[in-house]
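Hey, can you fold this?
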Amino acid sequence: MEDGNTAKPKSSFDEEALIQLHSFNGKKVAKVVCYLWQNLVNPNDPVELIDGLELRFEDNTRLNFSSDESGEGLSVRPYSLKEENELLNNEFKGKIKIFGLDASSTKMWQDVIGKTLIHIRLTKEDGLYLNDSVLLDFETEPRTLAISPMDGLVIDYYEE
């Protein structure tokens, strides 16, 4: 007999993603690119949200954040703007597009450029590192990232 209290298992980063995340500690940020998802199905009411974030470092490496396949957690897989747009164009015939914007000079990111990514903090629960959110510690400029099924990638300042 089921008690109706079957909790959905928490989504977490796999070992490969954890190793990748750890490899970016100590690198200096050179550029920040945001990938915006734009829905023009209703031209009078376009919808835009952040679909992905790419941190580019001075050593020419890149760390990408976007949603995982479930749409409920973060993924650190490489982001291909060309592939994403091809998939969307095939399905929505140009009504939905993704484009990249250099966000380095925006208020959110301008103070991060040239800073070192000291550490990426994750939530640990039951021995798993959850992919619900991350805290990016850029010296004195921490930022949080999370996924919202309705709002896409949510980026915010972090204050203790």
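Oh, and this one too while you're at it.
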Amino acid sequence: MKRFIYGGLSALLLTTSTAVMAEPAARGRAQVNQPDTAMVFNFTGPMIINSGAINNTHYIRIAVIGMDLQDLMVSIPGEMERFQSVRVIDQTGKEIPSKINLSKDKLAITFDQPIMAGTYLQVEFVGVRMFTAGGSTLLYSITGQRVGLRGEIPIGTARIQLPSRS
């Protein structure tokens, strides 16, 4: 009978100590998933939200956040031989009236009316011809001027991966 009581008592102590040790680990996991520890992003300036290539058109989509956007400056990658035209459209697909000036390696876009915060725009390079046969990555550095601020602010670098032509 003593063996039975001592054996049952040992099993009870082992089960209790295991449950007590597991509780802090479970409590720690629950705290990680709490809403107050979640990562929160608060963007206060324009940013690139998408970029890519469809056939011979390269596009860069920019979210206008924080303040209205007055102009854009896009650096042209060295791998780009030429392009036929540039279109700037809003989220509805409607063309945004703007003046486009091309220098040796930069494209300046000045909007007739500032682009309102809370919207997005898309810059499209139509009819792109490349020096490379494909498989390379193009980097378009973009800056902009926000209404009420002097000087260009960095918006980001759009990355476009070209497929290999084999």
